Amino acid sequence: MKQLIECVPNVSEGRDIEKINQITSVVETVEGVKLLDVDPGNATNRTVITFVGPPQQVIEAAFLLIKKASELIDMSKHSGEHPRFGATDVCPLVPIAGITMEETAKYAHKLGARVGKDLGIPGYFYENAAKEEKRRNLASCRSGEYEGLSKKLSNPDWKPDFGPVEFNNSVLKSGATAISARDFLVAYNVNLNSTSTRRANAIAFDIREAGRVKLVNGKKVLDKDGNTERIPGKLKAIKGIGWYIEEYGIAQISYNLTNINITSMHVAFDETVKSATRRGLRVTGSELIGLIPLQAMLDAGDFFLKRQERSLGISDSEKIKIAVKSLGLDDLKPFKPRERIIEYLLEENKVQLVDMTVKGFAEETASESMAPGGGSIAAYVGALGVSLGTMVANLSAHKAGWDAKWEYYSDWAVKGQAYKNKLLYLVDEDTNAFNKIIDAFRMPKGSDIEKKLKAEALEKATQYATEIPFQVMETAYKSMEVMEEMAEKGLQNSLSDAGVGMLCAKTAVIGAYFNVKINTKDLKDRKFAETILSKAETVYNNTLIKEAKLTAEILNKLEC
Q1: Alpha carbon 151 to chain centroid distance?
Q2: Cα angle for residues 49, 17, 67 (degrees, 5° grid)
Q3: In the chain, what are the domain boundaries?
Q4: Would you say 167 and 153 are in contact if contact means Cβ atoms under 8 Å apart?
Q5: How much is the pTM?
Q6: How high is the mean pLDDT of the chain?
Q7: What value, to the nearest 5°, has the Cα angle with vertex 80 and ends 129 and 162?
Q8: Helical ranges in 149-264 per DSSP H
Q9: Domains 4-181 and 353-558 in one fold
Q10: Has domain 4-181 been given CATH number 3.40.50.11030?
Q11: Which of 56, 149, 209, 306 has the most C-beta neighbours closer than 10 Å?
Q12: Is there a catalytic annotation at residue 497?
């Protein structure tokens, strides 16, 4: 698996667009690195930058960014709402794919050593890159901020992990940088109908894991070891403070969700609403800083759909709409999912068959090109079939008087969506499989070695082109359970829709069966061919039996 890490440097400039562009432009000079997001904040005077790529290329891009920021930003003249102590204030590395946290921490150390040696910038390793426990917490590393940096560097207990220990003229300008390896962090602000930082902080203390200092008669309470006692907050894996944002004219609670598997965005929002309401305040919406994983948005959509007792078996795009409106993510400015969800930004910009219009897909099929062919069409017909079954489930979940059964129908709609998504994937994958055969045919065959390699590639490609339509058969056959259940227990006014869905599933199975049979004719590995043909014949026969039974039942119900 290809190794990918994400880098999310925060630079202390959020107002001068020309400077921000100069800083971010160096990222794209490194081959293999993709700049995903640039999110400047005027009030915080801070820009959150996100890019992703292979580890070595990412730390090269991060180094160049830190260097450029130190050249353009003078920390002695900086002011902003957000805590900070450097031109590049923080530079976290986040494992995305094919790499462990431990490996990511080693890259963080490598980056820090270079920043300290080549740029003369001091700094600290925090979270999973920390070299001692007291430095794991970013707030501890950054305490005193830029204004207290001179004193901090001279403190033996806070000797930098990299870079100079003296507050020289270079450090006066650049400040310090904190570098980490950490889990995916979501920076998330909740908006209030108030201008009070004190009240926003009170809510933050209610919610954040660290809670608030325990006071008795206005004095801090100490434990037996002399440490300040705290009253824990409501949620784990969340940090938060309140502040006033002049740009918007409102107070916000600014959260860092350090592990969204422990505390999700929607849970943080929901608990904030409860706390604000108890304190006589109202949450008007929220603001996402930077990017978020797709699943976090889908989970939020599901959370609010359950609250409404609505079916969860709807498309991702509809769930995202529900999440955006429920969280008020468009309260301050438009929220554009294609620009804020990390998986969407990583998608390759190639045209997929399933992204075409219905007319465009039909015209592409009818053209002189050999693909898409019968296999892709079979998968698409199957997707349409189970979409009809899913529609009946969703209609049933929303039927007046059936409120007690909404979860039952929702579960069936979710199953239908899963089948639909698999079949839509197979639409393009069948064409991709066919193209692999064409690529194999085009390989050179001048020498004996070339002939051998070509024959092996052709055999492998043909096997794959047989496996894909078999997957279409299996998926379309299994999807029939949705239409069966809805024909029996779903909204009877939509009985014909369940029937048409079943017929589409049958067509998908038979069409894909044709493709399995024609592709196995050319296989040299007859054991593979006979095994998959035997499985395909079983699916084919079971499909005919199931469709005939359901067709008879539907026709019987439709008799006047």
Answers
A1: 41
A2: 55
A3: 4-181, 186-346, 353-558
A4: yes
A5: 0.80
A6: 94
A7: 25
A8: 149-154, 169-174, 197-207
A9: no
A10: no
A11: 149
A12: no
Which stretch of 273-287, 362-376, 404-418 has the lowest confidence by average pLDDT?
Answer: 362-376
CA separation for the pair 547, 414 (Å, rounded): 22
Say how far apart CA 512 and CA 272 lie, in whole Å: 52
Residue 294: burial class (beta carbons within 10 Å; 0-12, 13-18, 19+): middle
| CA distance linking residue 454 with residue 507, whole number of Å | 34
Catalytic site residue from 89, 270, 302, 430: 430
- Tokens representing 373 are 């062919």
Q: Is the pLDDT confidence value at 222 over 90?
A: no
Exactly one of 82, 109, 183, 398 is catalytic; name it.
82
Q: How far apart are CA 492 and CA 499, in angstroms?
A: 11
Output the pLDDT for position 1.
58
Report CA dihedral (21, 27, 31, 35) to the nearest 10 degrees: -80
Pair of tokens at residue 54: 């292979």
Class of domain 353-558: mainly alpha
- Return the closest-CA partner of residue 454 out of 370, 524, 369: 524
DSSP labels, 418-446: HHHHHHHHHHHHHHHHHHHHHHHHTS--S
Q: What is the mean pLDDT of residues 381-401?
A: 97
What pLDDT was estimated at residue 519? 94
Angstrom CA distances, 189 to 66, 146, 547, stand at 26, 24, 53
CA-closest candidate to residue 47, choices 3, 15, 81: 15
Query: What are the residues facing 219 on neighbouring strands?
Result: 216
430 is catalytic: yes
